[in-house]
Design goal:
The chain has helices at residues 5-17, 23-40, 42-53, 89-105, 122-133, 149-163, 177-186, 216-237; strands at 66-70, 109-112, 140-143, 168-173, 192-197. The chain has 238 residues and is of the alpha/beta class. The protein folds into two domains: 5-52 and 206-237, no CATH class; 58-197, HUPs (Rossmann fold, 3-Layer(aba) Sandwich). A five-stranded parallel beta sheet has the order 3-2-1-4-5, sandwiched between helices. Helix 7 (177-186) links the parallel strand 4 (168-173) and strand 5. Helix 1 (5-17) runs antiparallel to helix 2 and helix 7 (177-186) packs parallel to helix 8 (216-237). The protein is elongated. The chain starts with a helix and ends with a helix.
Length: 238
């Protein structure tokens, strides 16, 4: 009965009511109910996300000069008990994976994320959380100006150039990796080791995955496909 399920029930009810009075309108309502059901289900979102997440695999023994972690959202908040409370779930997943990768490699961590929708940079909050986990401050580098993935790439590479880092281990969500790799390469580096994390597809399915949901996975996938299309057109024409 929660949205969008209640919308589907309402449309199905209207379709049933109109089945004899206005057959065409009833069919349209039934079709809309079906589209909302399918489009908001986790199964449909997984089908869209799957090709993006399978594009790159994380190496067993990543090697490089620096770990570059891209932030994925900011929640804000007043005075939280932990800096993790200020991070959107996407950033939190990446930060946890970046901490483990830091422990495995000992490499410096460059955190990239500005403040496109907040009054505080995402990189600042993510770095504070990583310090809580145990990463020394001198191992953290913050890039706090970027507003999107293209600027993540451009500003991060500028910092890497100043510090002499040539080989980058690029860490971001698996679905976000194809666009990130494209933009980092277009920004001027080919020496990237993709390290995708936080996969959302490939696991077992449950009955709830076939029911109407929030459509988050579908929105995430469509955002990436549209972004890839835009930048490929942009770079092919520029």
């Amino acid at each position: 009965m929660l949205p969008p399920g209640c919308y589907i029930v309402a449309l199905a009810g209207v379709a049933f009511y109109l089945r004899k009075r206005a057959r065409a309108a009833g069919l349209v309502c039934a079709a809309l109910a079906g589209l909302i059901w399918v489009g908001s289900s986790n199964v449909f979102g997984g089908l869209l996300l799957g090709p993006l997440e399978r594009a790159y695999s994380a190496p067993e023994k990543p090697a490089g000069d620096v770990i570059v972690m891209l932030c994925g959202g900011f929640k804000g908040g007043g005075r939280p008990f932990s800096a993790s409370e200020r991070l959107a779930f996407g950033t939190l997943e990446r930060a946890d994976a970046a901490f483990k990768l830091y422990k495995d490699t000992g490499l410096p961590l460059l955190i990239s994320g500005g403040a496109p929708f907040s009054d505080s940079p995402e990189a600042e909050a993510a770095a504070a959380y990583l310090q809580e986990l145990g990463v020394p401050e001198n191992k953290l580098i913050k890039e706090e100006r970027s507003r999107d993935t293209e600027e993540n790439a451009r500003f991060s590479l500028k910092i890497c150039g100043e510090k002499g880092y040539k080989k980058l281990i690029l860490l971001t969500s698996a679905y976000h990796m194809p666009r990130s790799v494209l933009l980092f390469r277009k920004a001027g580096t080919a020496d990237i080791v993709p390290f995708p994390v936080a996969r959302r597809t490939g696991g077992p399915r449950f009955y709830a995955d076939y029911l109407p949901g929030g459509g988050l996975e579908a929105r995430m996938a469509l955002n990436e496909y549209l972004g890839l299309l835009y930048y490929r057109l942009y770079y092919s024409l520029s």
